[in-house]
Design brief:
The structure is a single chain. It is built from three helices and no strands. It is mostly helical and 74 residues long. It has helices at residues 2-19, 31-54, 62-66.
């Protein structure tokens, strides 16, 4: 019974680890693709800054949301 449980745990761990493989994103090849990529990065950064700005100081997620964001009030 102990071996079966150990084997089950090992299979579950291996299956979960396979899901954690990062997604490959190819490099843009045209000027249009580079521009779209840059715009997406800028939108993501603006959203992070917005979330950092609107999150209350007592919120436990504040540190995580504001990591890498320059705040005006600091």
């Amino acid at each position: 019974m102990s071996r079966l449980l150990t084997l089950t745990v090992m299979v579950a761990a291996a299956t979960t680890a396979a899901c954690a493989v990062p997604i490959y994103e190819p490099e843009p090849v045209s000027g249009y693709q580079w521009e779209r990529r840059q715009q997406a990065i800028e939108r993501q950064q603006a959203e992070r800054e917005r979330l950092c700005r609107i999150t209350k100081d007592e919120d436990p997620r504040k540190e995580e949301l504001c990591r890498g964001v320059e705040r005006e009030n600091d």
